[in-house]
Inverse folding.
């Protein structure tokens, strides 16, 4: 997974440099283009059911599902954000997606047990006619869902 994470960081920073601050849908499209260039198998904007107990209660759209390839040995969700930082609301959203994934009857979605929160920071400042870009352009957190708990993984 280490190689995948390094590639994800690299392409995310490239996207940030070119179109950071624009609408999330354009950043998402650019990320999909970069995944295609690197031959990273993925699904974009996939609808899945969210469950209460074992009953479906609605649909949500996952930003990305990444399939195993290279050093990535499992399916995972990437949930993109564009904010000053990742917060607990984002983590709760990912928890709900990861909790519901195994309950879906789709053969790929039901295998998802990990998720990545990928945040394109919105903290550029503009002073004296120039912008100051943050040193860290993106935040990235990797989470697993086990025993009804969201667990932060080491990067």
């Amino acid at each position: 997974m280490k190689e995948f994470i390094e590639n994800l960081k690299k392409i995310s920073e490239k996207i940030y440099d070119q179109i950071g601050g624009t609408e999330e849908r354009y950043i998402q499209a650019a990320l999909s283009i970069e995944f295609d260039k690197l031959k990273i198998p993925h699904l974009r904007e996939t609808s899945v059911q969210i469950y209460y107990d074992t009953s479906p209660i609605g649909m949500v759209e996952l930003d990305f599902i990444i399939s195993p390839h290279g050093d990535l040995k499992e399916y995972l969700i990437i949930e993109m954000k564009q904010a000053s930082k990742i917060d607990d609301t984002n983590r709760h959203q990912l928890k709900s997606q990861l909790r519901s994934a195994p309950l879906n009857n789709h053969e790929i979605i039901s295998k998802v047990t990990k998720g990545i929160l990928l945040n394109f920071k919105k903290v550029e400042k503009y002073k004296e006619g120039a912008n100051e870009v943050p040193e860290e352009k993106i935040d990235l957190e990797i989470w697993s869902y086990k025993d009804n708990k969201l667990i932060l993984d080491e990067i």
The chain has one domain: 2-153. The mean pLDDT is 93.
